[in-house]
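Appendix B, record 7
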Amino acid sequence: MVARKGLDVQGKANFRGHPLHLMLISFPVAFWSGALITDGIGAGARDPFWFRMSVVLIAMGTAGAVLAALCGYIDYRTVRMTRKARSVATGHMWWSLAATAVFAVAFTVRAGDWNSPWGIALTVAGGLVLLVGGFLGSELSNRYRIGILDAPPAVYTSNEPQPARPRS
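Structure tokens (predicted):
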């Protein structure tokens, strides 16, 4: 698909040519990763504040993941892909939905007991599942260029003028 006037993306879930899924997914990934970090700090410091913070981060990440998943599904249904890219996209969708489900269960378990060992184990499991889904999502963007505008590479050939370098 060729970009027209810089506003064309490959999927239908976009804002002014920018894919919403790629923008929104940063939030759940950051919140869930933060929950893993705050659990680690809480375990080391033995301070319940950090476990409470993890529960808040898990809730925010899960809410954000639902919105990101909706936009991702719209793109999944509207992007023309090769068979291999479609297979990777399907795997990405299922692993990411599984991560969302595991974190939602972790939130449910931990809502009443912030430092529940089962809840913390589910949080770690969710992080591992997220790694697989994130890897597959990265494959879609970087290898198959899904959601990326067709643009010339940001490499200059010897025949093109080099941009001026700022003087220090």
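Remarks on this record: The beta strands are 14-15, 18-19. Residues 48-78 form the longest helix (31 residues).
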